[in-house]
Amino acid sequence: MKTFYWLVKREFWENRGSFLFAPVICGGVVLLLTLMGVIAGEVFRSRAGVHVSGMDFAQLRSHLDAGDLDKFSMALDITMLVPSMLIGLVLFFVVFFYCTNTLADERRDRSILFWKSLPISDRATVLSKVVSAVVVAPVIATLAGIAAGLALLVLLAIAASFHGVNLWEMLWSLPHPLRITAHLLSNLPLYVVWSLPTVGWLMLCSAWARSKQFLWALALPIGSGILVGWFGLMDLFHRGTLWYWKNIVGRLLLSVFPGGWMPDHALGMAMGGADASRMFVSLTDYSLLLTPPFLIGAVAGIVMIAGAIWLRRWRVDG
Amino acid sequence: MSAIVTARNLGKRYKNTVALDHVSFQIESGRIVGLIGPNGAGKTTALKAILGLTDFQGELNVLGLDPRTQRDKLMEQVCFIADVAVLPRWIRVREAVDFVANVHPRFSRAKCEAFLARTKLTPDMRVKQMSKGMIVQLHLALVMAIDARLLVLDEPTLGLDILYRKQFYQSLLEDYFDEHKTIVVTTHQVEEVENILTDLMFIRDGKVVLDTDMESLGDRFAEVMVGADRAAAARALKPLDERQVFGKSIFLFDGADRATLEALGEVRRPSVSDLFVATMKGTYA
């Protein structure tokens, strides 16, 4: 257990830039741009001589009906989610390239010979890399997203409070920061299971291909998808080619995208302007864990991770 | 004395070449064995087999374990330095020491820090900022702090200047080696290890062509400097090798009668490098 902890720590040391700095910087950039936007807005407003002083939010509020307030509250919720979404995109690239390179890089710089001179099994090493990809990086990204989201709310609330808007209302009674935080955190176990096929596939390529791991990782699934479409193979199973792209190619390459398990209708709901927090219901539905996309994907991922462990045992050069 | 490594009919084939051609050898405890051979002779393959880094045919027993199936257990008692450039470039001295201290049950942090104190390395220094010699100092400090029964060194001083090379072997001898430890080393810089070896193994084309300890080396091999007048007589004794120096011939003999040789001229113990060159003649031809 102690060895495993230190193995994970070692991965963090090596990838501090992508695991920690990338999401933190991304959140910081969102905040900075918002701040600049707010300041620019204020400057523009005062130059243009527009005066909103004396506008009373309470008075304004009395003119808003419940539906308007709901929309306003949802807008604030979505605002809080913006940093998490951007950081989620960053996380996708971080985890994707980490998995593609981690086992290949140690052979390329020959440091594998140093790691292998220590009494650490290949299983423990590869599993520590899996844990880094599906737990360490996402947890840091999620925390960074939550912190940036809360900071964004505070920033906007303070800016609004200069114009007589009630700070408390902007921060607490209209948006749902606690609920969103809880949802973002409870996403994580689903992410761990959902991302296994992509993590397994990329690590298998990283362990197997002697060079150009990234190209192999992309070319094999995409090439197979093209062949399947060309020959109409999926018709044999009464499924369309689209099914193959979505459930095989997509799961091998895109499952490290956070929230990828969200069903299409929920996505449409979110886009169509439904309550943002309602969209989370499908994102944090643990009963999904027992459905075939999660179960079969996880089993496939574990098999491929086992393959990567076996390959690392014997592949030392090149 | 007990055997640390026992190989019987050890074989390894790559696609077109035979790297190890059914060799058998034994390495005893408390020895420093030099495994010496030209490029591509199979040295590295033999070491890889011992360290469980490659598959092979035949039988190989290292510390009572099979390196193919019991590698994880084996590595608690075996350590190796593959070559100078294998420490990860991002790691800091402090991180490397912390990591090894926490994953290796036989590592002594105090020893390691004492070794490091003798160098210019500082805890926050990263490997990528170090010279090749400094990387080796760090690697050696880590490895010497591990109480391993077998230490394998594969070209550990390649590319180092002579100060670092001397220091490397001196540290190993003074601060590390004792009768409970065994060291196997491969190198091309034969002159530098000549004085520290207890055993010598020459390997050529996947075969062990010489396997002897250093004491009997002097009894078995002899070098004689012979004037031109008696060169024909010396040649009649079937020397391994002949070379010319200042108008005289130097002959290298294997197992020739000592008294006969002394009659021919001045008899010396041959250097390992001369013996090596004589044994490997024609390898690249």
Automatic annotation (TrEMBL), chain A:
TM region(s), chain numbering: 20-40, 78-100, 130-160, 180-202, 214-233, 289-311
Keyword Lyase recorded: no
Top-level taxon: Bacteria
UniProtKB keywords: Membrane, Transmembrane, Transmembrane helix
Protein name: ABC-2 type transport system permease protein
From TrEMBL, chain B:
Record Pfam families: ABC_tran (PF00005)
Organism: Fulvimonas soli
Keyword Phosphoprotein found: no
Protein name: ABC-2 type transport system ATP-binding protein
Entry-linked PANTHER family: ABC TRANSPORTER ATP-BINDING PROTEIN ALBC-RELATED
InterPro entries, per the entry: AAA+_ATPase (IPR003593), ABC_transporter-like_ATP-bd (IPR003439), ABC_Transporter_VariousFunc (IPR051782), P-loop_NTPase (IPR027417)
Top-level taxon of the source organism: Bacteria
Record flagged with keyword Cytoplasm: no
Record SMART domains: AAA
Molecular function GO labels: ATP binding; ATP hydrolysis activity
Segments forming domain ABC transporter: 5-230
Keywords assigned by UniProt, alphabetized: ATP-binding, Nucleotide-binding, Transport
